Amino acid sequence: SVTFAGVVSTDVSFGNQTTVVVRAPVSNAGTGSITVTANTGAFVTLLAAWTFDNPSSITLVNPSSGQFGTRVTITGNRFFGSSSINNITQVTFAGVSASIVQYSDNTIIVTAADSGVFTGVGHVRIVGGSGAITHANLSFTYLARGNITSVSPNFGQYGTRLTIVGSNLRGGGSQVSTVQLAGANASILRENNTFVEVVSGPFAGLTTGDVVLTANTGAIVSSPGAWTFTNSCQIGSITPLIGQEGTLVTITGTGLRSGGTNLVAANLGGFNVSRIVLDTDTTVIVAAGPGPTSTSSNLTVNVEMTANTDPTCLFINAWTYGARASISSVLPASGQRGTRVTITGSGLRVYGARVTNVSLAGIAATILSESNTEIVVAASSGPALGGSLGDIIVTTDIGGRFVIPQVWTYIAAGRVLVVSPSSGQMGTVVRISGLDMCGGGTTVVNVTLAGVAANITDQQACNLITVLAPDYGANVTGEVAVISDTGAVSVRANSWTFVASGLIQSIQPAA
After folding, report:
1. pTM for the structure as a whole
2. CA-CA distance, 426 to 116, in Å (whole number)?
């Protein structure tokens, strides 16, 4: 035995001629001698060698009940039991060792271990690195472990809705906080202690695995091998593989509606498509939505399609939002009918083969030329009195589009007011007066009379032009068109008539 300040301990775990290992008894006797007594009665004493510190204690175990996985916080004081050895070596609940998460001298966090078939109340016991033991009698209750009795359906894919039924599914907590199916997180729709409804989430591959429910206390309820990820939809091809807003994406494969009768939603990387153009079990066509607000580089994303029966067909990293078109300039920024507008930049075909449509402030323009770096169009007729600032929208052959916001203005159309004379033949001097016949340009470069180019002999600003009528050779009436250096056209309909040239049949006398 060993006596500490007058208090005897017989808990000797080892002893020889030089070393004795003994557990100190519980006492508040203060300071005193240590006496080692041999089995022969012989003893050795060291005076004033031991001091009993205030004993350690547990003040709170929270929660005070749970099961496998429950995260328990134990508070108290002097758990180390020594000022020189600062660690905790073991914590047990009802004799079952818990997993230590973190500790200090007054707080310990542990995870309850599996108690097997045992349920009921038991002691909490803490062992410090010094060997000091702290007890709290009958302070933790092992609850009956949660049990999953059914998972229905027990197979599916991303987006499958399933029901988990059992008992004590919250494991003593107040709610189920997470659910995993074969290692993949699921979304919880509703839950109670006997029923959990979830939607399966994205998964890495076709596999069978455990259904694992974790409560807000950390308690874990699981069912081994209870869920299998399948994939009823199989991808064949996606065309094109890269695009931007508006791009028509064609997806081919099998089971693309995941057993449903139609698709109710689709997205590319979480960005909803603008419309579903076609959906069958083997072909789906969607128009890409706006996508990322700022894309200066390519972004590869998942393709997701959700059927009316909830399952989602998921293809990982299957499509790419390409870098957006970059605009350098739009010149000129205003004009009228015929004005040639040049758009320069990069990526203007938006991953298509050609530009198929350009609109200026909502009015379709005529494409004169196009490439990936430059588009030239001729403006169509706009509002007679001009319009407000509007967008330029460019669309390509694969549906890709981009918008240049608020960059184009239709100005009031130039007007041809008077054509004098209004008829004649080759050589007739014709004076044309009007308002802003340059149409936003600086000069008039061409005039046609009934569709035939005339020779400009004089021009006073953009309001008065003099031309010589060309030869036509027949009676015909048509418009007078004035074209400026920007391509803008000012027209007056049916305002010029060619008179057939005179014919000399005879001269009398001829000499």
Report:
1. 0.58
2. 113
